[in-house]
Structure prediction request, 613 residues.
Amino acid sequence: MKDNNKEIDFGIIENAEMNELESLSEKVTPAGSDEKKKILEMSKRKFNTRNNDTESYHEDSVSGSEPYRPRTMWKLFASAAACIAIVGGIAGGAALLRRNGSPAATPETTTIADITEEPTTAVISQSEVLFIKGGDIDGPVILNGLNIKSAKVTYLPNADGTEFEYVVNIELDEEGARIFEEVTTELAGTGTPISIWVNGECVSAPTVNSAIFNGNMIISGNFDANTATELADKLENSKGPYGGPVYTKDYGQLIMDCMADLIKNDSSITDLYYCDYDINGDDVPELFIQYFSDKPDPDFPNGVCELYVLKNEKYEKITAKSEKMWVHHGNKDGIIIIHANADPIIYMVFKLNDNNELELQTNFRCAIQNGKEVYTIDGEECSEEEWNEELKKVKPDDVEWLDELAKKVDLEFDKNFDEN
Amino acid sequence: MTDNEYKRLFRKSPQEAQNTLFDEYFNYVYTIVFNKLRSCAAKEDIEECVSDVFADIFTYFAGNSDKNESIKGFISTVAIRKAINMFHSLTSKNGRTVSLEDSDADNIRDNTDIAHNAERAELRRTLLRLVDELGEPDSTIIIQKYYYGMNSKEIAETVSLEPVAVRVRCSRAIKRLKDKLAELDISLKEAEL
Prediction:
């Protein structure tokens, strides 16, 4: 790093004492914000690689100096080696002379083996994985399979160190780790287990001794190499809760196409979430989309929800814009509750029939007429209590599809994808 | 910030905890590392070193430690050691390092010139004092430009001025600084150091 200024050399500041550096660092920002951001990213990346890949990190960090050998020994070896080299030279020369007489040299043939691997066609079936508070499958769900970042088989010594056993090491994603930490903090020392269920079967129900912060856990329990691998595979290839989006056919591309179209037609969209979820039990996912734009529709300041269904190999919108949507999780009864608008308040209950058409079941409406709130169900006036009660019957309070299942779309990616 | 505070934050959100820690100590670590490596390292090396320091710190606090202390001392120690390691690995190629197998390995002397060092320390203090006397934001601009080698745009961002204003202020400030040095009869021309 060269100074621009030849008159004064600021290099004199080098090797300053700590107190000088401290006051300097308090006063002067040493680098631009871009550089700072870059360094933060580098740090985090390094930290993450170390954490996720502890073993290779240790390998990397092994360092040391070469063992010292007395020099005199080398001199001896060196002169011996020189002698051999000279002898070799003579012998080699002789060999060359002889060879010149017979020019027919055997051509070297090398065969390059074709290294084409058979594409792996094995279909990995997705399993349903749930982490549940307590030992009962009806207990509250803590995490689902989507929270599992990786599940690997590890060979570890058991508690008294006498034998080795196979265990499955689970790493959770960031969100999962955070939730898991909260729950383990709550359960630590209480004796309440956290049970892990794969396809409705409890694979492990450990009790929590102390809070687990980093989202890493180990499931042990008399596995052999095969069963451990099997479990790890199941955990790793798991999908969402409630039977999750497990379909016999892959609709991912159609879903992506549909959203790409949406983005293309409305460039003001800033955030886009989607959720593929089969609500009527026909093994074809319906597509829920929620988006936010920088020029929001005045009627829908909190984002717009839309429902798309598959018709003729293409996802088509079947609802008007609405503020929120709910479904009955896991029932697959085709019921969709739509909160249409803030004023007047309208909740509509639809049923998605087998032809992928919506049938209106009930219409809840609360409008202000002459300064008074008027509640109606299917056009018939009723009291506020009745209205709320009826609504509660169809609209679950606690479940909203977006909260648990929605995935965010990387808009940049989709836009690029679209252009190509 | 104590390490318990950090851990509490880390439990809540690891990302946020790391960002906070980084924000709080970035200037400190960068200043330390830069101070050691300025003469021998490229900007990329310094960035590398600073990120190493933070990765180390993150890793350390992700593990277990039961102390409840200010982490500033810890951070400065990590920073200094990393910087010195980096310094050694960078300068080993420049012939400053002598192999033990070399015949003159026995004759290595410590070249530290105590008188010279003391003089440098004195000069350094004077220079920093004079730069300080320029007042803000001039002193910041001067240090960022001539010591850290930042460009006017980057400086403008940190002192919230226009790049043009930075250039003007900078040229005036360096002139004032020169005058001040001349008054004290100090010459800091590069050739003399």
Q: What stands out?
A: The radius of gyration of chain A is 34 Å. The CA atoms of residues 32 and 38 of chain A lie 10 Å apart. Chain A has a mean pLDDT of 69. Chain A has ten helices and 19 strands.
